[in-house]
Amino acid sequence: RATMKSLRFLSAEALVSNAELAKKSLAGVAHNLYPLLFKASYLLEQGEVIHDLVENWPLVDFNVGKLLGTTVDYQEDLSHRTCSVCLEGCLTGLRDYVLNHPSPYTKRLKVVDLTGIKDVEVQLCECKKPMGRWARTQLLSKLCLELVGYLQQTQCNPELFELSIDVLMDLFVTERNYELVVQALLKKCCCPLKICCVAFRSDNLSLQKFFYIIKLTEPSFLSKLEIVHNVRLEMEHLEILFSSIHFPLLTSLTLPARTFNVQRFTATEEQMLTTLGEKLGEMPRLTELSVPFSILTGRIQKLLSPLKTPLKMLDVSNCSLNHADMTYLASSCHAHHLEALDLSGHNLPDLYPAAFFKLLNHSSSVLRSLTLEDCNIQDNHVNMLIVGLSPCQKLQEFKFLGNPLSSQALKHLFMFLCELPMLKNVEFPVPRDCYPVNITYPLEDANLCRFDHQKYERVAEELNLILLQANREDMKVSTPLFGSYDAAVQETNSELGAYLIKSFKETLEKFTTSLNKMS
């Protein structure tokens, strides 16, 4: 559906559609019209005009999220368009803002906020070339180093060194861009553009490099920390991290798989877990915690009870929780505040149905996102699930891939889901009756695609018909066989794939060496 544009916005579009004319006209444009021209240029993907606007930005702040968000003149939110042409224009314009003015005293810009850009799966821009978080980190670091090099080599106005612009950024660092980002952070003091890391994500990085770069990010200002996948962080490393570095503003923490494994706990490690819980309690703003694929059997209370603030988001997928863990969660202060909950990989209906439904009931007034993948939810559990979900009137997202449900049970469940007024996104499993009779759950990766695709398409059509008859075309339903879209993983999958191949090769070589020694 087309979004209405004001006459002002239409006029702005007309001006920026001609890059040459726009460039000539900028000197005579009122300062308060720059935001309007910026959004119009972004919509039309006029990279040159965006560059020129940023290069001559007359205002104190430049907040991309606000500029591209809903505005009076054009209500459509463009902040999810990570268009390469537009973002490159923004960042190079920022560099040239520093360089291309006769007097630094005419510059008013103090803060640039790039944190409002949202990475999504479907890009609506015509170029179809997104610039993800990793690439934005790479380009900004490169431009900062270029600036430092230029200022050091050129006889430029010494007043330029007094210029200081904070650039708020969500950094994403892997092995491939590590050196560049480190150099940019080390030279921050002599660069007019000051990278201020608000959120930090690291993947495919050695522990030594992670510990070095995290200190350079000024962690006392970090609000979000994601340590994922190929960072081999274990509990003892986490204790060192939290003992040596303080994160007073941290609101969100994501830890890699297997950070915790209580199956091999000694008395020392039990004490270490207690200490870690206390360290989390020293983060007064922490409201989001993600610890997937750790083994935390019987230890959830020890980890979460010291927290000063109730959690709004909790991911304990595949954490081997037991009845005591679920009972604690259901009765804890967190239960009434959880807006997003992931309990995937737990046999909820058979092991602890009462505690699970109590947890669901306590969080129902605020719950927006619920993920129950591979939870052994079967046809005979659907009515119970419907009763549990009925109070969740604010639910916007429900994911339940990998559960052995028949097409008939799915239709029954969909008729109910249509009644949840705010539900917008549903990820449902391939029906069990589309797979061979001898298939077992949870499904192995090798069996995921071994289903009757034609039958699945027929069932999917029937489910969409249920939505249509209920006037719920606003709901997006899908079956992403290999999990939900992750923008960060998508952007760096070639590097991660190469890393996995290298790791596999090294393991084989060690195995061969061991065999040779034995023989």
From TrEMBL:
<protein>
    <recommendedName>
        <fullName>Leucine-rich repeat-containing protein 14B</fullName>
    </recommendedName>
</protein>
<dbReference type="InterPro" id="IPR050694">
    <property type="entry name" value="LRRC14/PRAME"/>
</dbReference>
<keyword id="KW-0433">Leucine-rich repeat</keyword>
<keyword id="KW-0677">Repeat</keyword>
<dbReference type="InterPro" id="IPR032675">
    <property type="entry name" value="LRR_dom_sf"/>
</dbReference>
<dbReference type="GO" id="GO:0005737">
    <property type="term" value="C:cytoplasm"/>
</dbReference>
<comment type="similarity">
    <text>Belongs to the PRAME family. LRRC14 subfamily.</text>
</comment>
